[in-house]
Amino acid sequence: MIRCVLFDLEGTLVDFQWKLEEAEAELRRAAAGVLGGGPERFAGLNYAGIWKAAMEAAGPALGPRMEQTLGPIYDRYDMDAATRWSLRAGAAPTLTRLRELGVPMALVTNVGRKATTRILTRLDIDRGFGTVVTRNDVPRMKPSPEGIHKALSALGATAAEALMVGDSLSDLEAARAAGCRVAIVLGGESTEAAIRAARPDRVLTDLGEILGALCEPLECRKAGRPKAQSY
Ligand SMILES: [Mg+2]
User: Fold this and answer.
1) Is 188 a member of any domain?
2) Cβ density class 43-75: b for 16+ within 10 Å, e for less
3) Are residues 108 and 7 in contact, defined by beta-carbon separation less than 8 angstroms?
4) In angstroms, what is the span from residue 63 Cα to ligand 1's centroid?
């Protein structure tokens, strides 16, 4: 039985605005600069993969310097995206309904704490999230499952009780690694073809579609008539 929902932020609750190519090129150059060498060693890695590879290559000796070099770059692109973020259609009513139903919710995002706090407040969607796990709260970003583990621990829930809702293959892989079911909304970071090929438990065109799958079992449970989960 699903009893809590974990949401991604960018591309899922707000539209995708990160300047991916520009940011990733800058991160590759900066990480290579710390290690000594060219950016090609990070070729093919996305922003999360660059961080993971850079921190592993840096090790204990260069780790702090790598963090101090890359951290502000992520933050700068977050804050740039934050100037353009707006709520995706369906996000506000879906969050409101889940809150009314008493469904525990957490945010698990690769965006940093500063931009996350700013946007949740600006868009007035901070109330439903008792737990917010950002890039700054975990050693590795999604697709590593650490953020999901941390959110589940804070919610007091098991992976089997959680649904991860995201917009990217990173969300899907993180959810699978953690053992959660996963719904991916189209129109965000990953292409529809890539999402469908990866076969998430649900593909959504609007966030409100998770209510149909969740509300009925939740309301039945409240009424004492458990019903099979449709996932
Ligand atoms: Mg996303």
Assistant:
1) yes
2) eebbbbbbbbbbbebbeeebeeebeebbeebbb
3) yes
4) 26
Question: How much distance in Å is there from the Cα of 207 to the middle of ligand 1?
Answer: 13
Ligand 1: centre distance to CA 167 (Å): 5
How far, in Å, is the centroid of ligand 1 from the Cα of 210?
17
Ligand 1: centre distance to CA 189 (Å): 6
- For residue 91, the CA-to-ligand 1 centroid distance in Å is 13
Its pTM stands at 0.91
Pairing assessment for the beta strands 162-166 and 4-7 based on DSSP bridges: parallel
167-204 pLDDT per residue, tens: 999 999 999 999 999 999 999 999 999 999 999 999 99
- What's the rounded Cα separation, in Å, for the pair 4 and 63? 35
| pLDDT for the residue 218 | 47
| Final residue belonging to a domain, choices 30, 62, 82 | 82
Same domain? 63 vs 40:
yes
pLDDT in tens, 12-37: 999 999 999 999 999 999 999 999 98
Q: Supply the range of the domain harboring residue 29.
A: 20-82
CATH of the domain at 110: 3.40.50.1000
143 CA → ligand 1 middle, Å = 11
| Total domain count, the chain | 2
Name the residues around ion ligand 1, CB cutoff 5 A: 8, 10-11, 167-168
